[in-house]
Amino acid sequence: MSLATSAHQAFAERVEERLEQSVATDPGAVAGAAAQTLRSGGKRLRPLLVSMCATDAARGRDELVRAGCAVELVHMATLVHDDVLDAAPLRRGHPTVWRTDGRGLATATGDHLFARAFAELTATGDMPAVAILADACLGLARGEILQRLQAGDPSVTVDGYLERCTLKTGRLFSAAARLGTRFSQLSGDDAAALGRFAEALGLAFQIADDVLDCDGDPDTTGKPLGTDLLDGTVTLPLLVAARRDPQVAAVIARGARPDDVLPTLARVVRSGAVAEARAEAQRLAERATAELDAVDAPIDTEALREAVLLASDRSA
């Protein structure tokens, strides 16, 4: 990402090295599958948040690198488990572990990645930091249950959708920021503001991702259009469109078939729902930026502001 200055890039390289070491700690089929997941790449935005919410003095500490590694391992674990639940054949243009190795090994791989995340953070000896990540993981589990309960229901409210996204995405973004502040020993007010900043950033990021599933370029995103529609995941553009177009609501309620995808997404775009979802992502981006205005700590707020722009106006 362009926001990675030389200091953040050096941190990201250390995290990448630590990730490779961590997934290879326990040899065997699961470790091999975890390495496969790591090689599929990713934006590494969560580790960068750890770095950007830390002071220059803290960035060189091994504890901060382990924190960045831990949040990315948790993120990787959720992706592997999501692929199992969604029977997804591709992730970022690469075959998923579920596709290549089956449900059992993929589930075990996700479990392995979760365990490695906590092993990394526990090695810092900072139990409050472990508690921060544990709280985020509890939110992830609750969010996944909520997503399953909301599946195929076009009557889900926007507030219900945002609650799910806060649990599934916002909490881990916030945890990344709070770990950066904790290992920098920042004040309570600054740490709280950065936690709120990151949660709003995560929500903007998630909505922008949901928009891409309706109106993105599959060659850029690495996954086909309509993945959410096909697996019954009700996203903001789909929910807004369902309120305006009974045919969209009917497709969501009965379950979409492959030949429903393009005609339904065309109706979603024509309804103005995609534009409205983009506007909501922008509103959340502005909320995130407002939180930064209250931060006095010596951190890289310029990079954080750039992260807001990238998260709310995505093409991949």
Structural topology:
Blueprint: H1 6-23, H2 29-39, H3 45-52, H4 56-59, H5 62-86, E1 90-91, E2 94-95, H6 97-101, H7 103-122, H8 127-150, H9 158-182, H10 188-215, H11 218-221, H12 227-231, H13 236-244, H14 246-254, H15 261-270, H16 273-292, H17 301-312
Antiparallel strand pairs: 1-2
Description of the structure:
The protein has 17 helices and two strands. The N and C termini lie close together (12 Å). Helix 10 packs antiparallel against helix 16 and helix 16 (273-292) packs antiparallel against helix 17. The chain has helices spanning 6-23, 29-39, 45-52, 56-59, 62-86, 97-101, 103-122, 127-150, 158-182, 188-215, 218-221, 227-231, 236-244, 246-254, 261-270, 273-292, 301-312, and strands spanning 90-91, 94-95. The protein has one domain: Farnesyl Diphosphate Synthase. The model has no long low-confidence stretch (mean pLDDT 91). The protein has a two-stranded antiparallel ribbon. The chain is an all-alpha fold and 316 residues long.
Q: What descriptive keywords fit this protein?
A:
Farnesyl Diphosphate Synthase, 316 residues, 2 strands, globular, mainly alpha, two-stranded antiparallel sheet, 75% helix
Gross morphology is globular
**How helical, in percent, are the residues?**
over 70%
Instruction: Give the N-terminus to C-terminus distance in angstroms.
Output: 12 Å
Number of strands: 2
| Total of helices | 17
User: Going across the major beta sheet, what is the strand order?
Assistant: 1-2
Q: What's the main sheet like?
A: 2 strands, antiparallel
Order of helices and strands: HHHHHEEHHHHHHHHHHHH
Instruction: Supply the CATH superfamily name.
Output: Farnesyl Diphosphate Synthase
Mean pLDDT: 91
If you compute it from the alpha carbons, what radius of gyration comes out, rounded to the nearest whole angstrom?
A: 19 Å
Strand content: under 5%
